[in-house]
Amino acid sequence: MPSAPPGPFRPGFWRSPLRGPWLTSALGSILLILIAIVATTGFLSHAAYMPDLGHNAIVPKDRDLPWIASFFDWPTSPSWLYGLTQGLHTNVGLIAIPFLLAKLWSVIPRLFSFPPVTSPAQAIERLSIALLVSSSVFELATGVMNAQYWYPFKFNFVVAHYYGAIVFVTSLVLHVVVKLPVIAKAYRERGVLKPLRDDLARTKPEPRDDDGLVTPNPAEPTLSRRGLFAFAGAGAATLLVANVGQSVGGPLRKLAFLAPRREIVPGDFPVNKTARAARVTHAMTGDGYQLKLRVGDNEIALSREDLLALPQRTAKLPIACVEGWTTRQEWTGVPLSLLAEKAGAPGASQVLVESLQPAGVLRRAALTGGQIAAEDALLALKVNGHDLSLDHGYPARIIVPALPGVHNTKWVGELTFTPRAA
């Protein structure tokens, strides 16, 4: 067997006495719980888009996971449901970052093992680890960029993040299955929490292992295993405090220094996209504005004054975005069920909402019959007692309980209802 090159490939290069099967297993166990929450809420967000409907699919339908796309209709109650799932997705994802970095640190000798491959079985294992590491870094890095509204990449974030999640979850499941005997042995021999009771003076290297995580010439410890977990936990808590305010609101919102603030004027609430960014002009939304209600070949045109003359409903509802921020405001407008009746499709099974926005992947969204029928599903004309501003969707926007923020379409120009089958 050829000798290892100098540097990190040498067995004695990595000298921390903390590394070993127990440390890696313990960090991995914490990370597994966090990632399970992030993955579950991420796939729930994908399902909330209802990609089987109309123009909702961002991921091409023929390249999607059918059981994720269509096994249930996204509900409209409780109204805070989507805010909860995406708040968990974003904030738990941030919490996972320090523990992922600690986990990578704990296995770094394995990443530099030499020779890299000694058998076909090991080659498969190394490939799965490469997929796991690269996909986890990709998912967390692009997720943070998206939450910060920073898009240096040239690909569609939603599509890439979704496919990356599938690769990540698949490789993680395979990795856990392969490593279960190692994890069980580590916990059986050293206990689940016992090594965390050792202070710095009692911190000793783990017994030598077959994977080469335990160094043959350990240095004196400068940090206990308990201290390592505390350090990762402190990093996770800092990231949580720096972001969670945009999800839960209240006094914590002021502490969320990492959360992007999208105030149009002081005291206003956030928007994802301004009218200027969407290329919506006052000419489109001025006195000549008309909302078109369609059922088949029949069409009704309503001015904003006509809409204001219809029975109005007021409801306090949240807008929750995939980036993890949530805002709850008081909306006033016409119930969508009433507009369906006026169009000639009472109890409609679906509606296609089209924005005045001239372009963009989300300028059209389809809603289910259940979403139309929800008591507080509105074509909103006012917010907090005042006319919508242009950036908030004037002259009319959709607001439906528990719906993803991007499906609360702004600058609504057309509603095409599909009658319920007899």
UniProtKB/TrEMBL annotation:
Q: Where are the transmembrane segments?
A: 21-44, 88-108, 129-150, 162-184
- This protein's UniProt keywords: Membrane, Transmembrane, Transmembrane helix
- For the keyword Transmembrane helix, the answer is yes
**Compositional bias annotation for Basic and acidic residues:** 198-211
MF (Gene Ontology): oxidoreductase activity
Region (Disordered) residue spans: 198-221
- Asked whether the keyword Transmembrane helix is assigned, the reply is yes
Protein name listed in UniProt = Molybdopterin-dependent oxidoreductase
Q: Lineage of the source organism? A: Bacteria, Bacillati, Actinomycetota, Thermoleophilia, Solirubrobacterales
Q: Which Pfam families match?
A: Oxidored_molyb
The record's InterPro entries line, in alphabetical order, gives: Mopterin_OxRdtase_euk, OxRdtase_Mopterin-bd_dom, OxRdtase_Mopterin-bd_sf
Q: Taking every annotated instance into account, which residue ranges of this chain make up the domain Oxidoreductase molybdopterin-binding?
A: 287-420
